[in-house]
Amino acid sequence: MSGGREPARCYGLALLARRDYSRQELVERLCRRGYSAAEAADAAAELAAERALSDERYAAERVRGRAAQGVGPVRILVELRAKGVPAEIIAAALAPEEGAWGERAAAARVKRFGAPIPEDRRERARQARFLQGRGFRHEDIMFAVHAPQD
């Protein structure tokens, strides 16, 4: 192993064998490990060229996983931005789930509070705050806390 770049690449590949990382996240991990910023960036570029590192794959997997945990699109978007994922990749990752957020909000509400739709305004507001904290949008929250229109 000559030079600093090859060990950084190998360590990066070992990290990616365990789970996906965003490019920014991987560079940060490599820098914390003691590699220079240039070495880390070069290793990330090589791994991306080899398709071992992909912000698209990372974002899509993160959206699926967090949505399954009952987290809404606003919170997922903020989390992905914090990991350095570009806005267009985030939008593409969130797009397949677009029609399902209201149902996901309703499922999160039912899991936390039970099936009956709250009649009391204060209870509806409490449940709406819970969903807002989970990262659901206003329209999804309204769908979840109001009785379905027939």
What proportion strand? under 5%
Would you count the extended β strands for me? 0
Instruction: Spell out the helices and strands N to C.
Output: HHHHHHHHH
- Shape designation: elongated
The assembly state of the depicted protein chains is single chain
Average pLDDT metric = 92
N-to-C CA distance: 68 Å
Radius of gyration: 20 Å
Content-based structural category: mainly alpha
**Main pleated-sheet profile:** none
Structurally, how many domains make up the residues? 2
Give an account of the 3D structure.
This protein is mostly helical. It has 2 domains: 5-49, Arc Repressor Mutant, subunit A; 54-150, no CATH class. The chain contains 9 helices and no strands. Helix 1 (5-18) crosses helix 2 and helix 4 packs across helix 6. The longest helix has 14 residues, at 5-18. The radius of gyration is 20 Å and the shape is elongated.
Could you name the key traits of this structure?
single chain; 150 residues; mainly alpha; Arc Repressor Mutant, subunit A; 2 domains; 69% helix
What's the quick description here?
By secondary structure, the chain is mainly α.
Q: In terms of topology, how is this protein built?
A:
Blueprint: H1 5-18, H2 23-32, H3 37-49, H4 55-68, H5 73-82, H6 87-94, H7 101-113, H8 121-133, H9 138-145
